[in-house]
């Protein structure tokens, strides 16, 4: 399968293509599936992985190529392996994740990923996301495991409360927030709690946001314009569109 005009654009932006091979899969919950793969040389070519690192996978729908981004889970550069996690819904990516079996291959392009923690590392972390962002959230918690973190996790289904977080009870506080009003409820919950948690001096804090695009934009504007957080203390990326 060719990658169409999107593939041409990614090539112009120096996207690098790889082919991953499936080695297995596991059903974490009815709505969440983990697929294990070999990396086709990706981790060797990039010199390893950084927290929240993601790749674009290519799927076919109605005879046309479509790409979707997924975060690497537990990348092992020495073994050349990682996993990908899928919050299951309707669509070609999830159809593939449900049906794939060992030996299957999938095309991928590395372009656009990039994330560096502030230096020095923050002494307080605030995270806002949903099931689509869980792999990235866990990779962030793994990167700075002893940093106190408060997490607001939007749940669209009751099973989302059962998803596997890499939590350390001594350092991490998790709040489940039911998805209502197209994300507006999550925004309200964050606005009600975050100012007091941040305090007057928020120079040591870092806020990471990855929700649906509209909610992410609203929260990013709030953090920057109303709370006055500097650009290098906020990372906000819309992961999906309703």
Automatic annotation (TrEMBL):
Alphabetical list of Gene3D superfamilies matching this protein: Nucleotide-binding domain of ferredoxin-NADP reductase (FNR) module, Translation factors
InterPro entries: FAD-bd_FR_type, FNR_nucleotide-bd, Riboflavin_synthase-like_b-brl, SIP_FAD-bd, SIP_fam, SIP_rossman_dom
Chain ranges of the FAD-binding FR-type domain: 15-118
CDD domains cross-referenced by the UniProt entry: siderophore_interacting
Name assigned to this protein: Siderophore-interacting protein
Lineage: Bacteria, Bacillati, Actinomycetota, Actinomycetes, Kitasatosporales
